[in-house]
Amino acid sequence: MNNIGEIIPLAGMLTGIIIPLAIFLWLYHENKNKYAAVVEISKNLDNPSKAEELIKIFEDRKKEPIDYRRSGVITLFVGIGIYFLGAIAMGRFFEAAGALVTFIGVGQIIAGYLYPNTGKELTDAVEEYEKK
Prior knowledge:
By secondary structure, the protein is mainly alpha-helical. It has helices spanning 2-43, 48-58, 68-90, 92-114, 119-131.
């Protein structure tokens, strides 16, 4: 019985190592197969620009800047939900955490309006500044 009591904390510590390693290996193998497919397809293409288009298709990242207004609205309502969870069922700690998250969302919304992020918004802001 005493050995099981010693194994539980060890298993908990190993879980913190095993899960990130498993995720890393899973993502590595997933991307490895994608790029291997691109290499095989590009070997049969005669136009190099088509290979660049294929790479852009498989690229997961967005080239657009972060929209702080959108993420701010999401954060705002998550904070409101946490606040009401605390007010209805969980207590003052969750009310305080919900208020904090709500104010972070409000800050993100304000930052979204202070710092325009799309090309059109930047162009409009520069033109408005030049008029002054």
